[in-house]
Amino acid sequence: MAKLRHKAAEEEEAEAEEDNQAGDSSDVQAAKDAASKAAAEAHLAKARLDMARPIIRKPIPPAPAEALVKDADGNDLTTIVLFYQYVEPPWTKKQHRKALCFVQQLGRQHGVTGRGRCAQEGLNCTLTGSALGVRAFCQGLRDWNPLFEETDFKFTDGLEHSKKFK
Predict the structure, then answer these.
(1) Phi then psi for 73, rounded to 5 degrees?
(2) From the CB of residue 11, how many other CB atoms can be counted at a distance below 10 Å?
(3) How many C-beta atoms surround the C-beta of residue 159 within 10 A?
(4) What is the 3-state secondary structure (H, E, C) of the chain?
(5) ω into 64 cis (within 30 of 0)
(6) How far apart are CA 15 and CA 49, in angstroms?
(7) Which tens digit of pLDDT belongs to each residue from 23-68?
(8) pLDDT tens-digit readout, 100-159
(9) Has this prediction a pTM greater than 0.85?
(10) In angstroms, rounded to a whole number, what is the distance separating the alpha carbons of residues 62 and 150?
């Protein structure tokens, strides 16, 4: 009887050791997963920080590679850009009409849509389009009028296509 109890105890110890090893293995995998997730989050945080840096009198930043892929339906991902630029002194009525026509034509040319206010005092816009289209629009503003070198364009890339303004 003692031998049977001893054998049962040995089997329980062996099972417990297997469980510990399996637990160690899953703990190691969980640690690897957590480290991988932390590295990805750190990469995203750096990318967000880079995009938050002012770009006044600096080149328009290139679109990140992840913003250039298509979604499952074959649509471009959406980028949103926010900016304002005041004009001192304000545009004359003729300059204002010219600016309005130019901005509308530039938006059509690059597939950019959204909401914008073009007033004699300047532009204030929230626009969407493809990552490349939005950047081309912003560069087009700079090429048209050097005043837009002073503009701090703020980009958010990689949004769902459904987030694009009509």
Answers:
(1) -90, 5
(2) 10
(3) 15
(4) CHHHHHHHHHHHHHHHHHHHHHHHHHHHHHHHHHHHHHHHHHHHHHHHHHHHCCCCCCCCCCCCHHHCCECCCCCECEEEEEEEEECCCCCCHHHHHHHHHHHHHHHHHHCCEEEEEEECCEEEEEEEECHHHHHHHHHHHHHHCHHHHHCCCEEEEEECHHHCCC
(5) no
(6) 50
(7) 566 787 777 777 766 665 655 555 555 656 888 989 999 999 999 9
(8) 999 999 999 999 999 999 999 999 999 999 999 999 999 999 999 999 999 999 999 999
(9) no
(10) 18
**What type of residue sits at position 134?**
V
Instruction: Report residue 156 as tokens.
Output: 């958010």
The CA distance from 130 to 16, in Å, is: 57
